[in-house]
Specification:
14 helices, alpha/beta, six-stranded mixed β-sheet, 2 domains, four-stranded mixed β-sheet, elongated, D-Maltodextrin-Binding Protein, domain 2, single chain
Length: 399
């Protein structure tokens, strides 16, 4: 027995370093993400606190499109954006023969809420028409007494000008993009003939064709000639600070934020009497693609439509991956870490609590099932799964 024990002990000294070596290899995998700031705090919280394979980072895209670094650079492992991949984006991706095809999936569902602050108003309820007129700075919605009534808003008849707080970044803003989809789809009947909102992630582009007059010269961040009518801020933190601070008369728009949970009407406006709910967001989503339609990455971002009887400003934050990664998808590889991350996003449990705590919404079951079938299991016959041999054998894969 002693001899057997000694042999086992000796073997343990050989085996344990191998085991720890494997674990260390997995932990050593560096997975770099970049893109939208919309889910930034959520992803960083996942990376810090949740069980995630590998060494991860996620930071804001620095200049240009949120997709650009992923499509054209070799140091980015994945990217996040609310803006769907376009054919023009795809045209910049010249590495399919080296890194493999692209995978685009909706990661998490969300709402954009309208935070406000005005003296005496704690239950603000806006109609769709009023929202349209506010963001087009219509003469009928330029002061608070034009949109508030004592009956449902606690309105005090304030003649103060509404100050619209907007995201002033010259490039991508996910919150602006999701707001623009709603305004573009809903506001046609409420604007003068020939006026409309453009779907865009840049605020000035979004409103330019909806404003009642031609834009005059810039004046103190205001681009309509009225002092303090427009207040430009940078990032979600800038928006939160501008509306939550001591300044009154303000209304803005923001992605999920600790101060603005979407269920506190004294902080955020109802639209047609509605605030966001998890079920409402789920039921606003269209059906996921099926059959051969799954083969196009453009079909994987849910198209916007105005929901009936649910809060209307909704969308998804999406992820871009490669189908092939250097080293494959075996234990300890970057590919395995990427696949593990998406797998945990698509099940109830692993990240659910963190998603809920950040006021985002887990994707609805049909979408999670479709993503698992297509990209994680490859069980739908479309050949889209991570590491699919027909696409990945014989090429290096994304570094």
């Amino acid at each position: 027995m002693k001899k057997i024990f000694k042999k086992c002990k000796a073997l343990s000294f050989l085996v344990l370093p191998l085991l720890f070596g494997s674990a260390s290899t997995a932990l050593a995998q560096t997975v770099n993400g970049t893109g939208s700031t919309f889910p930034l705090l959520l992803y960083q919280d996942m990376i810090t606190n949740d069980p995630i394979v590998g060494s991860w980072s996620y930071g804001p895209a620095l200049g240009g499109s949120e997709h650009a670094a992923f499509l054209t650079g070799s140091t980015v492992s994945f990217s996040g954006s609310e803006t769907a991949l376009t054919s023009a984006d795809l045209a910049t991706y010249s590495q399919s023969g080296t890194w493999g095809p692209l995978i685009q999936v909706p990661a998490i569902a969300t709402s954009v809420v309208l935070p406000y602050k005005e003296v005496g108003i704690t239950t603000l309820n806006l109609t769709t028409a009023e929202v349209c007129r506010i963001f087009s700075f219509s003469p009928a919605s330029r002061t608070w007494n034009q949109i508030t009534t004592a009956a449902d808003d606690g309105g005090v008849g304030s003649t103060n000008r509404i100050q619209i707080v907007y995201r002033s970044e010259p490039t991508d803003s996910g919150a602006t993009y999701l707001l623009s989809r709603f305004l573009n789809a809903a506001c046609g009947p409420f604007l003068p003939a020939g006026k409309f909102f453009t779907v865009s992630n840049v605020f000035k582009t979004m409103v330019a064709t909806a404003l009642p007059t031609t834009l005059p010269a810039q004046e103190d961040q205001n681009f309509d000639g009225f002092p303090d009518a427009w207040v430009g801020v940078n990032g979600d933190a800038g928006m939160s600070g501008a509306v939550a601070g001591n300044q009154m008369h303000r209304l803005g728009y923001i992605s999920p934020d600790p101060l603005y949970t979407g269920v506190t009407n004294n902080h955020v406006a109802r639209i047609d009497g509605l605030l966001p709910t998890i079920v409402g967001t789920w039921l606003s989503l269209p059906s996921p693609p099926s059959g051969a339609a799954r083969q196009s990455p453009f079909n994987w971002v849910p198209a916007y439509s105005i929901p009936i009887n649910y809060y209307p400003i909704w969308g998804t934050t999406n992820l871009l991956f490669s189908q092939c990664y250097a080293g494959g998808f075996g234990p300890g590889t970057k590919g395995a870490a990427i696949k593990d991350f998406l797998t945990k996003l698509m099940v109830v449990g692993a990240y659910s609590r963190t998603i809920f705590d950040h006021n985002f919404v887990l994707m609805f079951t049909p979408w999670r099932t479709a993503i698992k079938e297509a990209f994680l299991e490859g069980s739908d016959g479309n050949g889209l799964a991570f590491g699919n041999p027909a696409d990945c054998n014989g090429i290096p894969g994304r570094p």
